[in-house]
């Protein structure tokens, strides 16, 4: 399946049981709600998906299960975050074998590569596969920026098609478009900047809180793209306290708590993460419950 790289791509959470096993029935429940809400793709094994704690066997189960349930309706993308180029190439081959349509590829983990090394990383992995690739550009969390000069080199690889823009600098959307036109599709990778970047020309949004609030997320995107900015902004202003949960180092716990509150997930995380307790949990719950109590009525965004 080719990937258009526009719209809403949830970085979906991985559901676990109390016994620390994959909870596929709960995962499927969330997946079906995402599909009904009108999302445009699914990303497995991202940071929010606790990819660093998953075994290769678990990634295989999740990917094959998702591909089967999605049944060609939208593309399934698998995250790759590895320390060695050789292992990234191996993961790309496995993703293809398991039925994924694309890859979300991070720069090297644990080694701070320079521009030459970063470009070589992406070129080498991309040359090893025919899967579509979205570059995850998050220098704040991962300490490596995929610069405009690196993207200049990546233009030669036709399957490097998009960027998850997480630099925290909304002006980077304009820089990318000014330099490369429509060569790279731009998807906002930070929930709290999503509407701003969509208005500036971003083609989509890789969401976090979409895991618990898919309809509201898709509505903001579609209304904005339809030019109905005031309606999108009204929802976005309601949404912002929830979207700010995406900024925390504990975004996995916070978003999973939101999923549990709306009946789309559980709080179970995999160690070394621990579930929230005490005052911290109560503070996050207050944000979630206040927002749910004031949840807006959405227009017919699916027809846009």
TrEMBL record:
The keyword Lyase applies. Keywords: Lyase. The active site is at 136 (proton donor/acceptor), 164 (schiff-base intermediate with substrate). GO terms for cellular component: cytosol. Pyruvate binds at residue 206. GO terms for molecular function: N-acetylneuraminate lyase activity. One of its GO terms (biological process) is N-acetylneuraminate catabolic process. It comes from the Bacteria. SMART domains: DHDPS (SM01130). The keyword ATP-binding does not apply. SUPFAM superfamilies: Aldolase (SSF51569). PANTHER family: N-ACETYLNEURAMINATE LYASE. Belongs to the DapA family. This is Dihydrodipicolinate synthase family protein. It comes from Chitinophaga flava.
């Amino acid at each position: 399946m080719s990937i258009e790289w526009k719209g809403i791509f949830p970085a979906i959470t991985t559901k676990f049981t109390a016994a620390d096993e994959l909870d596929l029935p709960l995962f499927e429940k969330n997946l079906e709600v995402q599909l009904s809400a009108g999302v445009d793709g699914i990303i497995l094994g991202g940071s929010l998906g606790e990819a660093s704690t998953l075994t290769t066997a678990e990634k295989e189960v999740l990917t094959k299960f998702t591909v089967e349930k999605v049944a060609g309706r939208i593309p399934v993308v698998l995250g790759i975050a590895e320390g060695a180029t050789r292992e990234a190439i191996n993961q790309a081959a496995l993703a293809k074998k398991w039925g994924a349509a694309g890859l979300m590829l991070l720069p090297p983990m644990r080694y701070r590569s320079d521009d030459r090394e970063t470009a070589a990383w992406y070129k080498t992995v991309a040359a090893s596969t025919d899967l579509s690739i979205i570059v995850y550009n998050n220098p704040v969390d991962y300490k490596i920026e995929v610069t405009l000069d690196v993207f200049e080199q990546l233009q030669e690889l036709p399957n490097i098609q998009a960027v998850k823009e997480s630099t925290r600098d909304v002006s980077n959307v304009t820089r990318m478009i000014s330099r490369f036109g429509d060569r790279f599709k731009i998807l906002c990778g930070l929930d709290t900047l999503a509407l701003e970047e969509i208005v500036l020309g971003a083609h989509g949004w890789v969401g976090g809180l979409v895991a618990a609030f898919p309809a509201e997320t898709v509505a903001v995107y579609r209304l904005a793209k339809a030019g109905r900015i005031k309606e999108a902004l009204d929802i976005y202003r309601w949404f912002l306290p929830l979207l700010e949960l995406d900024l925390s180092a504990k975004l996995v716990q916070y978003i999973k708590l939101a999923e549990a509150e709306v009946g789309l997930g559980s709080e179970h995380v995999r160690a070394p993460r621990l579930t929230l307790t005490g005052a911290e949990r109560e503070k996050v719950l207050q944000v979630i419950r206040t927002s749910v109590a004031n949840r807006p009525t959405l227009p017919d965004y699916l027809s846009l």
